[in-house]
Write a structure and sequence with these properties.
By secondary structure, the chain is of the alpha+beta class. The chain has a domain of 56 residues. Helices cover 43% and strands 12% of the residues. The protein has a 3-stranded antiparallel sheet. A hairpin with a 3-residue loop joins strand 2 and strand 3. It is elongated, with a radius of gyration of 20 Å. The model has no long low-confidence stretch (mean pLDDT 83).
């Protein structure tokens, strides 16, 4: 495996690396919002990790940070009948 291939990711690994769903990845790609892939002969399109890191760093915090789920609501007081 060449050095270029080691520093790049195929499409599936790229969307997993970015934490994006498959459908989200293709929507972003169709809108031209992803970094451009490079074409490696006899291998296909791959994304440079450095380009993906730079793209992730440029996103708004709400897109980069996964929020933890809300804590469960406090149980209500039992109602006397």
């Amino acid at each position: 495996m060449s050095e270029t291939q080691k520093a790049t990711l195929p499409q599936r690994e790229a969307w997993e690396y970015c934490g994006v769903s498959r459908s989200g990845w293709f929507k972003l790609r169709a809108q031209g919002l992803l970094p451009l892939p490079i074409e490696i002969p006899h291998v296909g399109q791959r994304w440079r990790k450095a380009d993906l890191d730079k793209w992730l760093a440029s996103l708004k915090p709400s897109r980069k940070i996964r929020r933890s789920p809300r804590p469960a609501a406090e149980p209500a007081e039992p109602v006397a009948v």
